[in-house]
Write a structure and sequence with these properties.
The protein has two helices and 13 strands. It is low in regular secondary structure and 339 residues long. Strands 1-2-3-4-5-6-7-8-9-10-11-12-13 form a 13-stranded parallel sheet.
Length: 339
């Protein structure tokens, strides 16, 4: 396999700058590193270590000596086996941020259960259909990314994560959602896109703090772009014939994604929502209703990859619109709006 050459000089420069400036943050991301430089071993006061988007196949055991670390980013490397990440990482008791997403891991590393201070945990594309129950013991978690993990069900222990604000479950094999999910009352962002859900449960209406809801997705997952693969899970959609009624009961909802949900028409219920962004891309929509122009709070609107041939003049009323996406549609004229 071809391996890109490491950017050796830039690696040296960043380490030198960190050492001379007695800095507590070291960014070694995007440098094609194949191994962690031993030269950083004495930088024991580091609080942030960013090793994302390199070619690292494993980490040395001495990574566990960075006892002051609060932020460790390992995203987008080449870690395959369970031994790629040493158990010594469990010694980093000050860690609040850990990203091991978009690697090639086939199971959730056991040492994570020792990191009880974690607030941010990214496990995207850890290829497992099983999530260990101990993850519910990470009581301080506010962010949890489980996209592309192949999950068929969620452990009941997740209901213990009362502080959770963001939960990403997109592109899994979930056929239903557990009712206790509606009791994680602090949730602000929820992604359940690209699953096998035939029914979007009404108990999600209990999530009154929800600001962002992804029932669909925009396409182009990071795991595909980085590893040049197309995951079979991405062909799965939460097909919507009607808009779930509970959506109108979410007072703070500002961002709604309905891409890839098989929509054939705009749901009239949308007009009562005060959305800032709406994605309805990659559906079977043929016509845009005039009332869409009354959704004046919109800042972003994605209509791409539909069969829409014209846009109504009323879209010109969307004076706050900053982004309008209409890729791959046979539209000949865009209505002019006052700014």
């Amino acid at each position: 396999m071809f391996r890109s050459a490491a950017n050796t000089q830039e690696i040296v420069n960043r380490i030198k700058k960190c050492r001379l400036g007695k800095e507590k943050e070291l960014d070694l991301s995007h440098l094609n590193m194949h191994e962690l430089p031993a030269e950083i071993k004495d930088l024991s006061n580091l609080t942030t270590l960013n090793l994302s988007y390199n070619e690292l196949g494993s980490l040395p055991d001495w990574i566990g000596e960075f006892r002051s670390l609060t932020n460790l980013n390992l995203r987008g490397n080449q870690m395959h086996s369970r031994r790629a990440l040493p158990d010594s990482i469990g010694n980093l008791q000050e860690l609040t941020f850990l990203d091991v997403g978009v690697n090639f891991l086939s199971e959730v590393p056991e040492f994570i259960q020792e990191l009880r201070a974690l607030e941010y945990l990214d496990l995207e594309a850890v290829n497992t259909d099983f999530l260990p129950g101990w993850i519910g013991n990470l009581r301080y978690l506010q962010y949890l990314n489980l996209r592309h993990c192949g999950l068929k069900e969620l452990p009941q222990s997740l209901k213990n994560l009362a502080k959770l604000r963001t939960l990403f479950l997109g592109s899994n094999c979930l056929t239903e959602l557990p009712e206790w999910l509606g009791d994680i009352s602090q949730l602000e962002k929820l992604d359940i896109s690209a699953n096998e859900l035939f029914v979007i449960p009404e108990f999600l209406g209990k999530l009154k703090n929800l600001n962002t809801l992804n029932l669909g997705y925009t396409g182009g997952w990071e795991i595909e772009k980085r590893h040049n693969t197309v995951n079979h899970l991405d062909s799965r959609i939460n097909e919507l014939d009607v808009l779930p009624a509970f959506i109108q009961d979410l007072p703070l909802l500002a961002h709604l994604n309905l891409g890839y949900t098989g929509m054939k028409t705009f749901f009239e219920e949308l007009r009562s929502l005060r959305l800032e962004s709406l994605h309805v891309n990659n559906n079977d929509i043929t016509e845009i209703p005039e009332w869409l122009g009354s959704m004046t709070s919109l800042r972003e609107l994605d209509l791409s990859y539909n069969a829409i041939k014209s846009l109504p003049k009323s879209l010109g009323n969307l004076s706050g619109l900053e982004i309008l996406s209409i890729f791959e549609m046979p539209i000949k004229k865009i209505p002019y709006g006052k700014r």
